[in-house]
Every structure is written in structure tokens, then in C-alpha cells.
Automatic annotation (TrEMBL):
It comes from Papilio xuthus. GO terms for cellular component: mitochondrion. This is Persulfide dioxygenase ETHE1, mitochondrial. It catalyses: S-sulfanylglutathione + O2 + H2O = sulfite + glutathione + 2 H(+). InterPro entries: Metallo-B-lactamas, Mito_Persulfide_Diox, POD-like_MBL-fold, RibonucZ/Hydroxyglut_hydro. The lineage of its organism: Eukaryota, Metazoa, Ecdysozoa, Arthropoda, Hexapoda. Belongs to the metallo-beta-lactamase superfamily. Glyoxalase II family. GO terms for biological process: glutathione metabolic process; hydrogen sulfide metabolic process; RNA 3'-end processing. Homodimer. Monomer. Interacts with TST. May interact with RELA. The keyword GTP-binding does not apply. Its cofactor is Fe(2+).
Amino acid sequence: MNTHMHADHVTGTGKLKSLLPGTRSIIGKASGAQADIHLVDGDLVTFGEYQLQAAATPGHTNGCLTYIFNQQSMAFTGDTLLIRGCGRTDFQEGSSERLYQSVHNRIFTLPDHYTLYPAHDYKGQTATTVAEEKKYNPRLTKTLQEFIHIMDNLNLPYPKMIDKALPANRVCGLY
């Protein structure tokens, strides 16, 4: 299950499918990437007695999904919401305004006690909570206009792998 089509690395989805016959790949329909299953907002992924709900959280990319696991009070936010940060919005259909709205309307509206698992963290943390991010996230505690200003002035380098990763990730990491 991919939260979005990545630009910074090549997905291992295709390799996993070759190693584990019968495995099906999942990604948001809006991503434009190939997959066995394309999800849209509100779709449910059932495994055993559990379900993950796909919530469209565009902004980092058009196809970003957050997977909400209500039965365990948690959500997997991908790069939409990181611990004390968020995904960049300066390439790959990114939009600071849409990301801000996605976080505030789709993630920050979850119960405060929900544990959030981002795609990665550069400081070694693995989880946070809705309450923590609503209180301490230095970007997303700002007004929309302040957030847009912050994001417009990050001056991040062009992703090193983007020219290889995007074409590969459009076809499940295999090209």
C-alpha cells in the first residue's frame, strides 16, 4: 500500500510482488501510477477483521492518501504530515494550500489521541499524535498564509532521484 507516488526513491512494490506471488499493489487513483487496486477517498481496504479507510490528503502530491485505522486509533500519513513537519510542495503537483487544508480538514479532525505514523522521520522518531502535531508542528500551527510563506521559502534542492524515481514509480518500481 503506497501513500503516494514517490519522487525521492524507487518503490519496492514491484519487487515485493515478484517475491510474494499473489500480492496486489495499492495506490491512490489520483496518483496516475499503475497498481492492481486504485483507491479514492473513502474506500476501505479490508484484511481479516480489520479495515483501513483511505482519506485523500493531497498537497504534497495530487495522489496522497492517509490510511486511517479506526479500530486501533491510528493513521498512516505518508509524507502529508511528518513529525513536526510536512512533505514539500514545490514539485510533482504540490500545493501548499491543498496540503494545509488536507492536514487541517482530514488529519487534525481525527481524535486527539490517535497515533500518527508518517512515512519517515529524519530524527529517528516513529510516531506522534494528532494532539502533539496540532500543538507543536512549527509549520501547521500557523495560519494558511503564514504556512504558504514558509513553504514558498524552504529553498530545498531538487530531489536527487526524481528523474529516475518518477518514471519507475509510475510502473510499480519496475522499468
